[in-house]
Amino acid sequence: MPGNNVQQQRSETKSMANADIVNLILEDHRPLKKLITILKNTDKDSSEREEAFAEFAPLLVTHAKPEEQVLYTYMKNNEELREEGFEGDVEHQLADQLLEEIMRTDDEDLWSARVKVLAELVEHHIEEEESELLPDFKKNSEPAERLAMGQQFLMLKTKLLEQGGTDAAHESDLDKPKH
Ligand SMILES: [Fe+2]
Ligand SMILES: [Fe+2]
After folding, report:
1. What is the full per-residue pLDDT of the chain (179 aa) written as tens digits?
2. What CA–CA distance (Å, rounded) separates 81 from 129?
3. C-alpha separations of 22 from 3, 34, 75, 100, 137 in Å
4. What's the helix, strand, coil split of the chain in %, to 5?
5. CA–CA dist 55, 152 (Å, integer)
6. Which region, left, alpha or beta, applies to residue 115 given φ > 0 means left and ψ of -120 to 50 means alpha?
7. Which ligand is nearest to the CA of 91?
8. Where does the Hemerythrin-like domain start and stop, copy by copy (predicted)?
């Protein structure tokens, strides 16, 4: 039936638009932001924050690595976007360092302090990405490029997920915080 074809075409167009790397990144940010509100709140039960952190760490890494490899690499090769791409890299490096330190932290109060700082850092980073970096990237790229980058982003992310998360965030360590 012709009606069905039109409908099918429409939904294909829609899912292709969703595979734009900008949309994929915004989708990834959503669950991270939710967990950040728990991680920032030092009044919360420590077990609730530990659970949130165990969820947060692999989500962060499987988002950040493809973002660096696909988005930031593109930006660093573009005159207009180069500095912002580097800024993203630098902030990711800081988050990585903190993440590793948190994994090795036994002292409960130090763990809590480091987790809070990481959450604030990532929150600020995501806010800037959404309000400045992504709009600037959109202005300086073509829809077809963003779709191709979306495919790459998904491929890299799937690969990382298949490897069980990340190098930095060892699953077993995350399940049982050390303090
Ligand atoms: Fe991001
Ligand atoms: Fe980022």
Report:
1. 444 555 555 555 555 567 999 999 999 999 999 999 999 999 988 899 999 999 999 999 999 999 999 999 999 999 999 999 999 999 999 999 999 999 999 999 999 999 999 999 999 999 999 999 999 999 999 999 999 999 999 999 999 999 875 554 444 344 444 44
2. 12
3. 31, 19, 13, 28, 9
4. 80, 0, 20
5. 24
6. alpha
7. 2
8. 21-135
The domain segmentation of the chain, as residue ranges, is: 2-175
Q: How far apart are CA 68 and CA 130, in angstroms?
A: 15
Q: Identify the nearest ligand to the CA of 157 by its number.
A: 1
C-alpha of residue 88 to centroid of ligand 2, in Å: 6
On whether the 2-175 domain is CATH 1.10.1660, my answer is no
Ligand 1: centre distance to CA 25 (Å) = 6
Separation CA 60–CA 94 (nearest Å) = 13
25 vs 140: CA distance, rounded Å:
17
Q: How far is the CA of 50 from the centre of ligand 2 (A)?
A: 23
